Amino acid sequence: MSLFQVQGLVKRFGGLLATDHVSLSVAHGEVHALIGPNGAGKTTLVNQISGLLAPDEGRVLLDGADITALPMHRRVAQGLSRCFQVTRIFPKQSVRDNLLLAVQAHSGSSFRFLKPRSHECGLYEAANRLAERVGLQGQLGEIAGALPHGAQRTLDVALALASGPKLLLLDEPMAGMGPDESQHMVQLIETLRQDMAVLLIEHDMEAVFRLADRISVLVYGRVLTAGTPDEIRNNPEVQAVYLGNETLETTP
Ligand SMILES: Nc1ncnc2c1ncn2[C@@H]1O[C@H](COP(=O)(O)OP(=O)(O)OP(=O)(O)O)[C@@H](O)[C@H]1O
């Protein structure tokens, strides 16, 4: 059974059908990319998945549970975590403090039975593990807002990992990055799939075609088609949608 399913989701803004009966599923350990031209409805769909926006129709299921009506924080507790297009770090705090805050926010059950001193050690250990996981262990003492853009996005991913998600939503993680930073983010996402599924919204087609197991193409609010990277790359309808817009030319 799929880890995550969207079933017949509909969202209207006045007369505009921004999400038009969208269904998609993500399997355990899968990187599923959502692509589509500007205004196709990607952000609107992701906002409904994360709980920022209520759908007019349809259901969102995680691990068999209907989470359609749950607020964002309850979805996070159920295993759905999200990184935003705009990084949500605390810029004046150190990398370590950002991680500690995130770990503490989700530590309720894991450290509850420990004495205060052990509790604190547990938080520091968890923050260090997160930093190592994303390659920021050398920057723990640095002020988050002073980090290069790519490292700030990486920290944002680490913050989203603090809740131990089953499904991670990544909303344009490569936006504004140079080639080296994008490369680092691709490698990081590669390592995540061992532990979780990833729903990736991204305009960088090079990254999408390198990472995705499957791709759903959204056009005018509906899923035009879904398939493997090869199926999507060779689909004439998809090529027509992207002609003169973003390019689908990637190194196979
Ligand atoms: N709150 C809103 N009220 C009215 N219309 C909206 C609202 N949010 C989005 N839309 C419209 O819904 C459509 C889908 O927008 P959305 O931002 O979801 O697309 P997108 O695929 O994420 O685009 P981009 O790639 O540019 O971020 C657009 O026509 C947009 O103008």
Automatic annotation (TrEMBL):
The keyword Ribosomal protein does not apply. InterPro entries: AAA+_ATPase (IPR003593), ABC_AA/LPS_Transport (IPR051120), ABC_transporter-like_ATP-bd (IPR003439), BCA_ABC_TP_C (IPR032823), P-loop_NTPase (IPR027417). Residues 4-245 form the ABC transporter domain. GO terms for molecular function: ATP binding; ATP hydrolysis activity. One of its GO terms (cellular component) is plasma membrane. Keywords: ATP-binding, Cell membrane, Membrane, Nucleotide-binding, Transport. The keyword Lyase does not apply. PANTHER family: ABC TRANSPORTER ATP-BINDING PROTEIN, CONSERVED COMPONENT OF ABC TRANSPORTER FOR NATURAL AMINO ACIDS-RELATED. This is Branched-chain amino acid transport system ATP-binding protein. It comes from Acidovorax soli.
